[in-house]
Amino acid sequence: xxxxxxxxxxxxxxxxxxxxxxxxLVTGSIAVVLAVLLFALGNSYxxxxxxxxxxxxxxxxxxxxxxxxxxxxxxxxxxxxGNVYLSDWGNSRIQKFDSNGQxxxxxxxxxxxxxxxxxxxxxxxxxxxxxYVVEAGNNRVQRFDLNGNFLGGWGSLGSEPGQFKxxxxxxxxxxxxxxxxxxxxxxxxxxxxxxxxxxxxGAYGKDQGNFNQPHGIAVDADGNVYVADxxxRIQKFDxxxxxxxxxxxxxxxxxxxxxxxxLALDKAGRLYAADGGNYRIQVFDQQLKLLTTWGQMGSKxxxxxxxxxxxxxxNGFIYVTDFQNDRIEKFxxxxxxx
Length: 338
Known about the structure:
This protein has 338 residues and is mostly beta strands. The chain is built from one helix and 24 strands. Strands 1-24-23-22 form a four-stranded antiparallel beta sheet. The protein has a four-stranded antiparallel beta sheet with strand order 2-3-4-5, with no helix packed on it.
């Protein structure tokens, strides 16, 4: 299943798919307690990371619509306190967990009113603790506080500045500038925190600087922008949208991509790419040189069935949404210095 439909859908309930079991064999409340305890252990794991493959510490979630359950989770973000925010695509809501994996709250229902969602995609948090969520189905960006209270939003269907045709990716710079990949307009738009369009670049094409349905996006500390698209590549731009470099092509070898999804950066400036159709994560340096890769198809710890979103917490732990396994996987921090 491709997380982004070819055409923006009406408000709907996504088709059911068979639940995939948790990594534990116990059920009911015991399973929930065990998952939370394992999630908490990750915070005392102290970066067992002198390996090129991060260790899967725990998985959180199972198929469903109750608190803490998930239906095709597509994106994840982490705030400065380590709280985890999940874009629960199939349930048309955002869920929030503490740093130990304990469910805190959820907000959103299917619809187009303020605070409702139609296929929520990527989300990110700015320096003022505001949560931004981009919606493909409603062609807009919504802004909330950390408790899910609606603060505003912008966007409508179209191709003018500030309009969208199925927005997908969202990233926030150190200056709180909002970058959105506008999938079917084949462009990136840059906004201030109030939704004023500051710049846009790109058109349809597979040449440098253009896009074939851009998906994931990330912005580094210097303002450089990384964009993944259906040409199975990552392009790097400066803060003005000038093309700098690119890497990738279609394939299954290291450094190649199949249905690339979310992007994220760590404090060292390394770029993480969710390579959805290859069921793995790939990591690159700032010059887009491949550093390491991990993952394979499956439902065991460390395996994936379409990894979609990726984020890192303040301690460097890595969170990946496992779209068709209905879970988040938490990995130890990556350390390639040794």
